[in-house]
Each structure stands twice: as C-alpha cells, then as structure tokens.
Amino acid sequence: MIKSNAWRLGLATLSLIVSTPTWADPQWSTHTRDYEITITNLTAGQILTPALAVSHDRHFRLFEAGEPASDTLATLAETGDPQPAATQAMNDTHVFDVQTDTAPILPGQSRSLILSADRFARKFSVAGMLAATNDGFYAVNAASLPWWGATTIYAWAYDAGSEANNEQCDHIPGPPCDNGRNEHQSDRVNFVRVHNGIHGIGDLSSPALDWRGPVAKITIRRVE
Question: Does 83 reside within a domain?
C-alpha cells in the first residue's frame, strides 16, 4: 500500500507499486458478472493517477456535487493514492467489489481492469487524480452497468474543494512538480464542484496542462 505523503509520480517513472485487492463478497450472490473497465486519458498534458473502481447498489456514492468531499476522496484528489477510498468503500455494505489499478495513465493512453458485480450491484463508479492539479480528479459517479455489450461514458474533471488551487509545486504531486510532500493549503470553498482548469497562476503552464471538455473516456464491457 502506498503512503499518501510519500507518493511520487515522474515522467521517468511510469510504474507505481500499489496493492490491488479484490473485495467481492461471495455471500452476496453465487451468480456474478465480470466487467472490463477501460480508461482512456483524453487530455493533452495531464497524467491520470491509478484508478479506483467500485461496483455497488444505488445507495452508494463516491461523492455528491455541492457537498464536502470525504477525507478519503480528498486524499485521492490531492495525492493520487486510491487506497484510503478503496478501504472505505470495501467496508460499505452497499459495495460489492473494489479494484485499484497499478499504474498511471499518460495522455492518449488507456488502462483496463476487471470489476465484478452481482444482481444487486447494478452501478459502478470510477475515480482518479489529475496529477498536475491541487485537488482535481476525474470521476464516473454511480453510472449503470450494462446488461450486455458495452457502454462508453465521458468523465469530467472535478475539484474536491479540499485544497486551494494555487498551482504551486509545493502542493502538487505530479509532473512538472514531482513533489512527494504535497503540502496542504485549505480551500475556502469546501465542496465538490466542476474543475475550472489550469490558469498558470503558480508554477503550472496553462497551455501545457489545461483541458477542455471531458478528461477521460470510460468504456465498460461485460465479459462474463
């Protein structure tokens, strides 16, 4: 398991060692379905950190727009570490399976993972950090699993509202900053909202790291 305050992501180091547990509860149902989730990075310059994927029923939410982010979601959005949010989801009775990926996703590239669900867990959620932001993350929040075939959903960038968007390297873990400390500076606007992008007000370049529209394409395909 990676530690939040020691997480580093660099262009020269494209692999990340994290644990990848599966928490499917066999007592829920003897009949499960497997889904392949493929995440494609649509940005020109942002790196997407290793993804968190959850299958669950209609009562579970990773977050609610307009409400404060949970501490574990804030950790994911500020550091790229999915494990605290994964552990919290694992302990939720409305969740069937939790998966975390092992590597970041570079611009234009894709990563896939397998998520299981049963007849009660008809929803799924996916999230990961935009590495060159203070607390930006992409997410699909409680989307419906396909009964057959595949479904594609475009994920927008959100601001966790947990850290000020000063765009300074002391507060950003990903390139070009590569900051393992990720010092925290509280945001006065403490709620999840749509991210307004990179403006070049600190150490970040807006032309290199900003985005327009969705930041990730999520394709989920039933494989069993």
Answer: yes
